[in-house]
Give the backbone structure.
Amino acid sequence: MAIKVKFFASLRELTGKNEALIDYREGMTASQIWALVVDGMDMPADIMVAVNMEYVKGDPVAQDDDEVAFFPPVTGG
Amino acid sequence: MAIKVKFFASLRELTGKNEALIDYREGMTASQIWALVVDGMDMPADIMVAVNMEYVKGDPVAQDDDEVAFFPPVTGG
Amino acid sequence: MHIELRAGDFDPYAEVAGYQAKLAPGKYGASAVFVGSLRDFNEGERVTGMYLEHYPGMTEKHLDEICERAREKWRLLDGLVLHRTGDIKIGEAIVVVAIWSAHRGDALDACRFIIEDLKHQAPFWKKEQLPAGGRWVEKNTSGYAKQV
Amino acid sequence: MHIELRAGDFDPYAEVAGYQAKLAPGKYGASAVFVGSLRDFNEGERVTGMYLEHYPGMTEKHLDEICERAREKWRLLDGLVLHRTGDIKIGEAIVVVAIWSAHRGDALDACRFIIEDLKHQAPFWKKEQLPAGGRWVEKNTSGYAKQV
């Protein structure tokens, strides 16, 4: 009964967190997970969110065992 | 007082000519040069003409010492 | 198609030549290759190196999906996508995208499609090393040039 | 930019790598490369080889002009155009166009511009060797793909 939370790049440095494991509670959305893990720090406007390694839009509800990742705009290539 | 005439690719094979040297006469156009060198054979509709290694359009008048080339649509690359 | 992340430096043209050598000669008439390399300047600043972070698992998955979309849109014979990760030196290759097709239109269009999608969607993040310290690149620029 | 006609076979990627090795590292961020190779089929027929005729003097002059136009339109650092002449075997490279620029938009656009102009304007003519004999190729096809 857990959700794995990941942070990358500047958000990893900003939050000081690489990965976190939180207890699953029914109905938790991505923004609630963010707030819970980073102690109320504001979510950047241009944040990208992936659930189970797929991009999601809006503020989806997480399921048990989901992996939820937060990261800034990508800059590869 | 001469004009050098060149043929390439399928037009070289069609006319049986690679190169010809003809006497310069004032006012000769490309199509008159073609007719003179190939004994009245029709000029193909899609022919390309270059004078001194530059493409020309229409039926330009040749100058003394010009090099006039006739060839089919190009197919390099 | 072969997609791979590499932690060490590679010669992009040797990789492309080696991959092509395994393809049946006479089938491909066109190959389109894009190579991105690390410049020593960006946004007016001198750059001395770069760290490339990615999301293990999602990055590979996303690159697979980009290539699959390209295969659906164009008639392609094969492709190679290599992308560096970790610490990169000036002048080293960051990414190579190579596409083989019977015809050039398909190869050129697919190559560009893949590099644009990769730049804007694939989970990679660049941290430039500047004389004053590290700086995360905030946004990739458009890949469509204005003519001079 | 370097422009050259070659009567013998060459390895396009080794040529591009060799040329790039002479450029200052850290200045180019993007290289776009197109390689055209001889296929063993065309317009429904089996092709066994090819003869490539050109117009000595005018061909080089025209390629120079194409590259000059590309340099006027985009911000380019350097370029390499190699084109085969004479007898070509299946799978061999016919042409390579490589463009280096700081940014990918310029490199990709200029590479495509040069190969399209070369295909439609540079004085080269292909004679395919078919099982039944030689056939002059009558027209190059468009380089802009329809999506599947």
About this structure: The first helix of chain A runs from residue 9 to 15. Residues 7 and 64 of chain A are 19 Å apart (CA to CA). DSSP finds two helices and five strands in chain A.
